[in-house]
């Protein structure tokens, strides 16, 4: 492609944390969470400079600042290559607010924020959906697989179905909702690769059919705001039965959440974070306390986040 | 339960043919077809009579008229048992308009028409959903398994998701639609049991995930009237890859339908009938001709049926 010209030199963007899998939506569904995410500022440098990554924020020291290894800079560079500007040098400052290996789409938020900032520098040359391949490429660096179930909702906001990878096809699910989601991150690490290794590679026909029914039903439950149907459908047949055993005190916490009128207790992404849907803010606060004390019972501190089910996607904060 | 009293002595009802499976909705989705179905008239007899089944209509001589073996009378008797009236004797006349082993929900239509008529005799004592277990029981007699993906849409009309069997939970998918469906029944028999025997009992994780994505996407496609999404989602990963090879000339017919702007070519139920969605009545007529000539190429006569995608469910025709 011909070179696309940058229209500004500095842009800063925010990308939210996300919950992927959503129970039965293993590898195909995800949604954005309000109020927590990563920020990236990109500044174009003189052509004789070297591109650099500056890490800031509470988790800034834990990931590589090597330009070729950092998920934010990998996404930014993929974008530059696409617009014929692979020689442009940048300073990329990543404000890393999301804990790593949390199951809250931490690496996705970094790369999505970077792409959103970079796309602003090029005057929104690409649509959000057109930017997806670059952030998925960054996910491959971070997790070993180019999944879209965190990056797509972080970029687009709301609730997203990844219907197909080849060709890539993501659908935003349009619905209105007054539901809340509570996400709790216990301070323990569960590697995505460990969490994936327990997932059986063959499943029974019966389970495949039930997963399919649950996913179809979950979409209906969202659109019809049907709490009972959501409670019936959010169960995963493929990964969670094994993964739940990897989350400390999961079953006791689940029991308490259901007793407090939470819809569910499921693993966020590949864990160790967990999430629950509920109807009201007071319920969300009760569930938040249940999750925190449940992890404390097994000696784990945790942070919780309460968000409306429908949260905004990545957005530009400033540019000049 | 205490005996419920009949309020009339004769009732007649119609139940439509149905398309089950709907591609990716293997064992969990189905919809009703307009204009073709079975009729059942039930007449209460004196208590010293014996219950009998009278078979009429083009396919009336092909199924058992034994009260304990006929799907219509099995459903009717299950209803009588439930309302505490197991001793009531009836004459059940089944107008068998649907070909057997066609994949168009033939046995389901017979039992649904019977239940609809019987429920009228008892002044609609049960809701349609409450009647489902009786018609599922009749399906067990007919097919060896108590499936709901034909009986539920035949009873309720429209497009139905069977989200769960234990407990039984069916959802009518609410949407508006101007789409059509063409169903073609070639004059050859494919036994449900043969058709089921080719379905693998273990599936890869990848296929299970794709099936789940397709089912969720198909629901979205219906609600959003999204033709492109429907075309992407209607593919089955579990049963059809094997079953398509059992349908004469399937691949050639599919190719011609897609070239004529049909959305898809899939197997209706367990076959040998096939169906295709399309946007307009002229397209439906073209697809109907394609299907018929495609089967003729391999020496098979066939009948086609054109219906709006949203068709009425079973209904009472008369009572006295």
Domains of chain A (count): 2
CATH-assigned fold name of the largest domain in chain A: Ribosomal Protein S5, domain 2
- State the secondary-structure class of chain A: alpha+beta
CATH architecture of the largest domain in chain A: 2-Layer Sandwich
* Helical coverage of chain A, percent range: 25-40%
Largest sheet of chain A: 7 strands, mixed
Name the quaternary structure.
homodimer
If you had to describe this structure to a student in words, what would you say it looks like?
The structure is a homodimer of 320-residue chains. In chain A, the strands form two sheets. In chain A, strands 1, 2, 3, 4, 5, 6 and 12 form a seven-stranded mixed β-sheet that branches. The two termini of chain A are 26 Å apart. Chain A is globular. By secondary structure, the first copy, chain A, is α+β, with helices and mostly antiparallel strands. The longest helix of chain A is centred in the C-terminal third of the chain and has 20 residues, at 205-224. Chain A has ten helices and twelve strands. The first copy, chain A, has two domains: 10-174 and 310-319, Ribosomal Protein S5, domain 2; 180-308, Alpha-Beta Plaits (2-Layer Sandwich), CATH 3.30.70.890. Chain A has helices at residues 71-82, 106-121, 128-143, 151-156, 192-197, 205-224, 227-233, 240-243, 250-259, 281-296, and strands at residues 10-20, 29-44, 52-56, 90-95, 159-165, 168-172, 180-186, 202-204, 266-267, 274-278, 302-308, 315-319. The A-B interface holds A 24-29, 161-164, 169, 171, 173-174, 199-205, 207-220, 223-224, 229, 232-233, 237-238 and B 24-29, 161-164, 169, 171, 173-174, 199-205, 207-220, 223-224, 229, 232-233, 237-238.
